[in-house]
């Protein structure tokens, strides 16, 4: 073999400072590879566009296992609120199912996206990893022995490899494959809110997902009487985030109150208790078809840039963390070309299985499928959903009240060599 094919990776450019980028940088650092994170926005709490761009998200047990592999799980535990189970309800208030991961796994955590960005960046910085902010990537040149990145401020950066962790509208993805299709509007606008004080009882760690008569509503009421909620509101005409925000929180709260007026769930009360300044108008939900390639030459993709997941999967941040850690293992043990092939071999089957599982569950119950379209479920669809959902959660891989262990129990064997 020539030196060119056997050379190991010593340096990396990580494009994107949201979730996948800092995790990848920390994993590379642990693997002995010098990594620098380049972030387009000037601040840590930037509104990074991605499928999971809502104000809040959950970090599943498998995501925490990935962070455990690089000694970073405490970052999530320190800022996250425990979610012990998911409760599914009809718009009538009827209990449909309750799902929980196996008890031996880490507890799912609800986190605010901005806080997670800040916590991961702070932990990476504490480990000595450089962050360059205000660095919007324009293009990159693969020389065969390295990559040179060019940014909008005229600066250049060079390293052995370049990793695209730049989200749903990834610039790196377009450099790897210019023919990659663009994200498209999924027919929903997303809103998230923090309610300072409610008169409702605590949900005791359960996050409830309600298939409303006109829209999907998820909520959790904490022991201190505060609450968080998220809405996926069907909206036929596409709107940008800026256009949605221009409507204003007061008007959106009025429209949301009308949307849930018939629902016999906590949705009407929680919307009514929300102060306009506590409503996050996070804008359109978008989808992305699977990519044929994640890598080319000395460039590769992780996170939403590589495998965007539907919001209903609850796995976006967790899968991104898994991919970041596995990529670092591969680059630690193999030359870049072989490392990227090994990385895709490790990740594609799992990512594809979770995507198929999410789609199958949605289709089987009819409910989640309806939440992904502009048209809400009609009376017949709602009746079928409410009848089938309890059975689907028992026989569709959930094992009764235990939520698919194969999905959530996925430790990464960091110390094992990648061949």
CATH class designation of the largest domain: Alpha Beta
Task: Tell me the name of the CATH homologous superfamily of the largest domain.
Answer: FAD/NAD(P)-binding domain
- The share of residues in helices is 25-40%
CATH topology of the largest domain: FAD/NAD(P)-binding domain
Q: Domains counted in the coordinates: how many? A: 2
Distance between the termini: 17 Å
Radius of gyration: 21 Å
The largest sheet has its strands arranged as 6-5-14-15-16-13-17
Pfam families: FAD_binding_3 (PF01494)
Organism: Streptomyces longisporoflavus
Protein name: FAD-dependent oxidoreductase
Domain FAD-binding: 12-356
What does this structure look like?
- Pfam families: FAD_binding_3.
- This is FAD-dependent oxidoreductase.
- Keywords: Monooxygenase, Oxidoreductase.
- Residues 12-356 form the FAD-binding domain.
- This protein is of the alpha/beta class and 419 residues long.
- The protein folds into two domains: 3-81 and 110-181 and 291-364, 3-Layer(bba) Sandwich (FAD/NAD(P)-binding domain), CATH 3.50.50; 184-287, D-Amino Acid Oxidase, Chain A, domain 2 (2-Layer Sandwich), CATH 3.30.9.
- It has 15 helices and 19 strands.
- Strands 6-5-14-15-16-13-17 form a seven-stranded mixed β-sheet, sandwiched between helices.
- Helix 2 (20-30) packs parallel to helix 5 (113-126), helix 3 (61-69) packs parallel to helix 11 and helix 11 runs antiparallel to helix 12 (336-365).
